[in-house]
């Protein structure tokens, strides 16, 4: 195992609920073994990237009700291709070469899992985005 791989794996948080079993699909194993720990590791950066996205879009987000904010998060990540690609890059950049090789074999399905996880993570932390109206 090369130094980069060792160091990447060493800094990832452990997620006790992210068990990997023999009965899981390959994509589900990848999600639990790689995606969830990397997304958790990158959490602060993902939140800051979303905050920057909101501010670049005139801060409309801060004027919305909670249900509309949750919808805004989902729409921003699903519909803004440049923003979505930026988030994907923050995550993929933390993959080992072996993980990247696995990822590119089924990137479409894994991208969907990745973005759904990011959406849920940001929604769960929507309170961190309060009173940030710095336009």
From TrEMBL:
<protein>
    <recommendedName>
        <fullName>Glyoxalase</fullName>
    </recommendedName>
</protein>
């Amino acid at each position: 195992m090369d130094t980069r791989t060792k160091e990447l794996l060493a800094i990832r948080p452990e997620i006790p609920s992210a068990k990997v079993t023999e009965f899981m699909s390959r994509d589900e194993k990848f999600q639990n073994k790689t995606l969830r720990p990397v997304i958790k590791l990158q959490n602060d950066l993902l939140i800051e990237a979303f905050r920057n996205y909101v501010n670049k879009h005139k801060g409309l987000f801060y004027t919305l009700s909670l249900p509309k904010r949750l919808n805004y998060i989902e729409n921003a990540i699903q519909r803004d291709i440049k923003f979505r690609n930026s988030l994907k890059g923050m995550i993929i950049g933390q993959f080992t070469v072996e993980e990247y090789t696995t990822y590119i074999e089924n990137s479409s399905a894994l991208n969907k899992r990745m973005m759904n996880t990011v959406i849920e993570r940001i929604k769960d932390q929507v309170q961190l985005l309060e009173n940030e109206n710095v336009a």
